[in-house]
Design goal:
Helices cover about 30% and strands about 30% of the residues. With about 120 residues, it is of the alpha/beta class.
């Protein structure tokens, strides 16, 4: 079971800001960064954090193009131990293609808990 948080919003709604602030909050709470790609690129940054008790979280800011979303899916597949996933995602009614591609890459299972944060 994973807890998946979908941070929904149109372009420039603040999805990346939310993801980066969540990462900083988690780091201040004792989580440590164990992996990351494109850390300085706000459009494609992905972080993997580990809690003091061993939980793993993946935080993704990229949701703008199909290649970015596919790249996130490939990265996520390397971190099957993640119990928490936070990702930016376009709303279905704003861009159904980007939305559906992200849902596909998340591979949501029946026992996953999905939370939506709308910006």
């Amino acid at each position: 079971m994973r807890k998946i948080t979908l941070v929904l919003g149109k372009k420039w709604a603040g999805k990346t800001k939310w993801i980066l602030e969540k990462k900083d909050t988690m780091l201040s709470e004792g989580w440590e960064k164990i992996d990351a790609i494109n850390e300085t690129d706000r459009n494609t940054a992905i972080f993997v954090l580990k809690s003091p008790i061993g939980e793993v979280a993946v935080l993704n800011s990229g949701s703008d193009t199909h290649p970015i979303i596919k790249g996130f899916g490939a990265f996520l597949a390397r971190h099957k131990d993640a119990s928490q996933i936070f990702t930016a995602i376009r709303p279905q009614n704003i861009n159904p293609y980007l939305h559906n591609w992200m849902i596909e890459e998340l591979n949501i299972q029946d026992d996953d808990i999905v939370e939506r944060i709308e910006l």
